[in-house]
Design goal:
The protein is α+β, with helices and mostly antiparallel strands. It contains 17 helices and eight strands. The strands form three sheets. A four-stranded antiparallel sheet has the order 2-1-3-4, with helices on one face.
């Protein structure tokens, strides 16, 4: 987790401000018990009303200053933690965008979502707690113990019994609860994975009538996470009663022995009051510090997962010297191409050679799992091949920057995807500065205009995630949207025709041939 804290460097002023304010707040909290003792000894016991008002006013001022320090430090710590979380999300998202499909296959989409959201939220929460509690608790413990020792040395013997007992109880609880916290993020990953599978595969689930099986699968993952949280909460339920019991016994012991010392004229009432308050401050600080050490392992597990993403190098990277751009019509050639998925015993493609010239239409036919989609995914360099060459306009794609290569290729994936925003925004994916006339022409060629008219929609209609499927199985028509903006593009389609009617296919194909 310390590796992530280096990203707090741009906000060091806020961090320093928090430390200073927390220190001042701790001083104020430590001075109040001494004033409470003074108001008893110098005011109440002496019957000096003006002295009571004087010390009481000073206590109000110090309390107010402590509150101001607490509010400002909370604000600054929250801002610093939020800024850290924002930067981490940006860095994780940028790193994920640079991944090849191999990294997505290796890490998994569900866990990437959890790491970008829940894991970073855990880091934010713990960062605030560290700047506030983990800094103030040690100062409070040391300061309160020194002041209590200054008030009455013999009475501090109570600490030598109470603190070890409290430490043993909390350590036993921590030993049971820390492993359970470490499992929480893994179980959340499992929930996200099952839920994502269910939502993306809802048509298949209904087609094969496996709803009950999928529901049981989700229920199993949900119950697993629930049981884990129940175990944590059951253990945590013992913390407060145990701590309060020890604190009450300690307070009783302090009052008992304190009264005996008062009867022997070895201690006054104000000192006993101050000493009792210092006892509570020490006990509460120990509890806060221990709770921090219980929460940190969960954040540490999240930090490890985030660092794993940030430290994962993309499998597909550009060479130091590449062609930034090239001109051509879009000829594609495979020369003895062999490709294997990571961990596979046999290559998915072996010694594949063919050539597709500009203007030609080539269909790759094969059974399920034969490697049709894999072959198409190699053209825009979503994966790097094991051996052989893939040439676009006689240039090896490894000699071309990925950005330039993908600008020259129009790719229609097997799974259609639309993004939130307007329909026009989705069509402009192929050309951000496209004019309205170009957008309408692309929609017409993609056979989307009639579909929009049927749904009483237009190009400025906004799509929300819940409504993205209103286009039904034909939303692949929009996947064809970008390829008429640039006449130099090679168009790669992965099983698009089943999503179009025969009439739509007949209308689209001539435009593809003219490409």
């Amino acid at each position: 987790m310390l590796k992530l804290f280096k990203y707090l460097k741009p906000y060091w002023l806020m961090v320093v401000g928090v430390l200073i304010l927390v220190f001042l707040q701790t001083l104020a909290d430590l001075y109040l018990p001494t004033l409470s003792g003074d108001i008893i000894n110098k005011g109440v016991m002496q019957g000096d009303i003006p002295k009571i008002y004087e010390i009481g006013g000073l206590m109000l001022m110090i309390s107010g200053a402590g509150v101001i320090c607490a509010v400002i430090s909370s604000l600054l710590s929250s801002k610093a933690a939020t800024a850290l979380g924002t930067d981490l999300r940006r860095m994780v998202f940028s790193r994920v965008e640079s991944f090849s499909l191999h990294e997505f296959d290796k890490i998994g989409t569900a866990t990437l979502i959890t790491r970008t959201t829940n894991d970073i939220t855990q880091i934010q929460m713990v960062t605030v707690m560290i700047m506030r509690m983990m800094v103030s608790a040690p100062m409070m413990i040391i300061g309160a113990f020194i002041l209590a020792l200054n008030k009455d040395v013999p009475l501090t013997t109570v600490f030598y019994v109470a603190v070890p007992v409290l430490a043993v109880v909390i350590l036993l609880i921590a030993r049971m609860i820390i492993p359970l916290f470490g499992q929480v993020q893994i179980k959340i990953d499992r929930i996200n994975l099952v839920l994502r599978e269910k939502l993306t595969g809802i048509r298949v689930i209904r087609a094969f009538n496996t709803g009950e099986r999928e529901t049981a699968k989700f229920q199993e993952a949900n119950d697993d996470l629930t049981d884990n949280y129940i175990k944590i909460n059951r253990i945590m339920a013992y913390v407060l009663p145990s701590v309060m019991f020890i604190m009450n016994i300690t307070s009783l012991a302090v009052l008992w022995f304190g009264i005996l010392r008062i009867n022997n004229s070895e201690m006054d009432m104000g000192t006993l009051l101050s000493f009792t308050q210092y006892v509570f401050q020490i006990m509460f600080s120990i509890v806060m510090l221990t709770m921090m050490f219980i929460m940190v392992p969960r954040a540490q597990a999240a930090a490890v997962r985030i660092n794993e993403v940030l430290n994962t190098a993309p499998g597909v990277v550009d060479k130091d010297e590449v062609q930034s751009c090239f001109i051509g019509r879009g000829n594609i050639e495979f020369k003895n191409v062999t490709f294997s998925y990571a961990g596979a015993q046999e290559p998915a493609l072996k010694n594949i050679s063919f050539e597709v010239k500009a203007g030609e239409m080539t269909a790759i036919i094969g059974s399920t799992g034969a490697g049709k989609s894999t072959l198409v995914n190699l053209i825009p360099r979503f994966y790097d091949i094991d051996s052989g060459e893939i040439l676009v306009d006689s240039v090896n794609i490894s000699e071309i920057s990925q950005e330039c290569l993908r600008e020259k290729i129009g790719f229609v994936p097997q799974k259609a995807t639309l993004f939130s925003g307007t329909i026009s925004h989705n069509i402009k994916f192929g050309k951000e500065d496209a004019t309205d006339e170009e957008v309408r022409a692309a929609a017409e060629i993609a056979q989307a205009t009639s579909l929009l008219m049927r749904w009483k929609a237009n190009l400025s209609t906004k799509l929300r995630r819940a409504a993205l499927m209103f286009l039904g199985a034909r939303n692949n028509a929009f996947q064809l949207r970008e390829h008429w903006f640039d006449a130099r593009k090679s168009t790669c389609l992965t099983i698009v025709s089943p999503h179009l009617t025969s009439r739509q296919t007949q209308s689209c194909v001539p435009h593809l041939r003219r490409k």
